[in-house]
Amino acid sequence: MTKVIGKSATRVEDKRLLTGQGTYIDDLGNTTNTGYAAILRSPHPHAYIISIDPTEAVKMQGVKGVVTGQDIKDHVKPFSVGVTAPVKYFPLAIGKVRYVGEPVAIVVAKDRYTAEDAMEKIKVSYKQLPSIVDIEKTVQEDAPILHENVGSNIANHRQFHYGDVDKAFKEADHIVKHKYKFPKYTATPVETYGVVANYDSAHNQYNVHANFHGPFIIQAIMAQSLQVPSNKLRLIIPKDIGGSYGIKAGLFPYIVLCSITSKLLGCPVKWIEDRQEHLSSSASGTDRVTYIEAAVKNDGKVTGLRMKLMDNVGAYIRAPEPACLYRNHANSTGAYDIPNLNIEAFAVMTNKSPTGLIRGYGGQEHYFALERIMQLIAKELSLDHSEVIRKNLIKKQQFPFTTASGGIYDSGDYENSFELALLTGKYENFRKKQAEARKNGKILGVGLACIVEPSGSNMGYITVALTPEERTKSLPKSGASEAATVSMDPLGSVNVRISTAPTGQGHETVAAQIVSEVLGIPREQINIIAELDTATSPWSIASGSYSSRFASLGSSAIYYAAQKVRNKLFNITASQLGVDVSELELGEGFIYVRDNPAKKFPIKRLAGLAHWNPLALPEGMEPGIYETHYYTPQAAEPPDDNDLINSSVTYGFVADMVTVEIDPDTAEVKIIDYFTVHDAGKLLNPLIADGQIMGGLAHGVGGALYEELAYDKNGQFLTGSFMDYLCPTAPEIPNVTIKHTESPSPLTPLGAKGLGEGNTMSAPVAIANAVSDALAHLDIMIDELPLSPNRIWKLLNEAKEKVTAP
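== Xanthine dehydrogenase family protein molybdopterin-binding subunit ==
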């Protein structure tokens, strides 16, 4: 039987996409009675709404109606949140706005142009309030309070103690500490948010098309807000989504807004977000302040860590936050064997836009501080950075490895991957080149980073936001379920329905590869149905496209569903031929007797028999071939009473080496080469894997050098277009060398782990380490991103002033 799993098969999606036959959200819902929506947004970061007068807008020809917060308040409930702070968040502002871009009213008209014109006719009176955007200042007693009923700007606060940290610090030879700031940035997919909502009054049901990518736990949150049973909110996800990178989970308030507007106005409502709206109001990662200190021995061994994490979730904490704060909780010590750990975690609210999932969510913030402190340790102890990493990496013989906070790293050989990165990048040779270049006035640097990449989030991880006592008052949460259905029609063709809401990653291709190998049929006979429909698809609350979960969870569900079909075909054949199942083999479209290949059945005939002649099936076997499998690994347990949590199912590893040159005249950082080594277990399709790595790396480069959703000190948004919000384009992507090592996961049937987020998490700190290394002779500390020429120029000038100061 031909092996196709693990091969670099070309993508089955590309033909329709490259020929313009994709089906995206904007291709849907264009009927004669559809109303097209525009959203009026707040120009103020913090203000009371005194009045809203839509009179002139409603009078305009072609306008179907205007809906405000007061109109919806009796029809929707505030969205539930995963913390105890009583934050009330509605899809339209009611009484008060808390960030620039917050929706204030929605206008529906015969077309978008009319809706936009009408929007300008709405008169809103505001009473401005003091605003706050600084993470640390927002928790001070004199800070403006965003939510009076909460009483503070702290949405969540937890403390965690693992091991004996006090002893580790008492016995340390050195204590190395620093404060790091990580910026708020987003993902900028080509396709922005989109919703087509249609209220069916006959059945009190909302039928909604949206490019929402999950997690589908939020479907229940939306249904609760709309005050309908969850089966009355039908979400249908288009076959094609033009990118997400996490942030399309933040679409859910607009799904509710368009749904309730459809009900109130009596027509389908379509809304497509524009780019300015997307930058100001969609979703982003959290900006974070981290205080980190390490207890260190003379040889560079780290024995304990203390971390204070302060995440800015924006004006409202909304589901699935505080995900960014806790998603990496189990891998808080990264790739290192550090047995003692204290964490104090805050999710705070400011007058910025709300946050949510973004590729690597929480990882880039976390590793920026952890990997920067490892380099700082090397500097303060006069050791090479590579030696400090080697001293602390988890050893191969320690796997499966349990971290201080409860993570169970399933497999790995971190040392081998790290050494491969150094060898590929010719680390020692670059050090020599760097020394020579410095003599000639050139500024070169090399940065290293080693990270653990979690994949397949355990639904229980978010409950560490609650104390053990608080968790006893709610339903325990665990698991990382994913589902798939494999069916075979009477002519032997196969349909596979998946629920991972693909957003361009190639799920259809890999799903076809898996089923092709398990059933021994060509990929061309396999049709992948990727349109998730909550009324007809197999799904769970965990379903969706986030947390790099397809490789570890989605592929496993597909594999086991295909195995169920295979087993049924084998049992039918055994019954027909009068042999035992163990005597049979599969190959070339037949199931045959191993020792007598002439005795065989075509798979096509077996499928026909199951449909056309069910009385010939073995006793007790149901007719037809339609198998669904829900997969969830046992490793995804709830947190225990000591706050130990295995927050993901599988854990990959990434080792990066990046070299940079800084132009002393322009302060521009140029990446010379980027070397990255990934251990993601068994690769399902190396070609697609490398594409995912390149995408993650581009995102990480953006976070390191260019991207920031910037606000001034008064809360005004400054980066509302691509003129101000800079993203890397093709010319900015450096030379990249990708290498792979494989430590198959023992937890997944194919040994696969996720890898779509790794370099998004590692690149910002790897590049920061390279820049810090380049500027080490000037005693410049890199503790903030992005590393724009302006920021580097300022640091260079400050260093010069110190040298010339009397």
